Amino acid sequence: MQIEKMLEYNENFVANKNYEQFLTTSIPNKKMVVFTCMESRLVELLPKALNIENGDAKMVKNAGAIIRKSFDSIMKSILVAVYNLQAEEVVVIGHHDCGMSCVDTKALMEKMRSEGITDETFNALEYSGIDFHKEFHGFETVEESIAQSVEIIRGHPLLPAHVLVHGLVIDPHTGKVDIVSIDKEKAK
């Protein structure tokens, strides 16, 4: 198991005080929230490509950098960062070649069934008002998805008017960033 190796490494990391190079406060230096995809290729590439150092930004992630509901956990995290952690800008960053762009919800459901999830479970979800296909559907283009997430954040009734919200797309191979939307209306 990888967790055992990770815990052993951590023990040495702490004993050798390797954490000291990462000490910072909980307030982001750049007063920014970055909401991006959980993509493993972006773990180091995205911060390096955008000059984000440890302590510079609050990082919030999910599959596809998708917000579909105004009061989901991502939006709550963004609002806490704005109100309690002094964030003044939100940057939504999707990426090309994203796995959420090609989710076949029927195939996903079948894979879940093959791992032991029963029809009764899917029926219970449906009975509870959860549309599996709607919940797991990805997007057609990353640009449209990022624009949708940006609009949900910008239009949120609890987001202060002065908070800037931008949308970007990064290439996970080169780190090149393309602009989807820059919040120029409120830019200083």
UniProtKB/TrEMBL annotation:
Catalytic activity, reaction form: hydrogencarbonate + H(+) = CO2 + H2O
Binding site for Zn(2+): 37, 95, 98
Entry similarity comment: Belongs to the beta-class carbonic anhydrase family.
Source organism of this protein record: Candidatus Pseudogracilibacillus intestinigallinarum
Keywords: Metal-binding, Zinc
Record text on cofactor binding: Binds 1 zinc ion per subunit.
Molecular function GO labels: carbonate dehydratase activity; zinc ion binding
Reported cofactor(s): Zn(2+)
Stored PANTHER family: CARBON DISULFIDE HYDROLASE, CARBONIC ANHYDRASE
Protein name: carbonic anhydrase
The EC number(s) this enzyme carries: 4.2.1.1
Keyword Transport: no
Gene3D superfamilies: Carbonic anhydrase
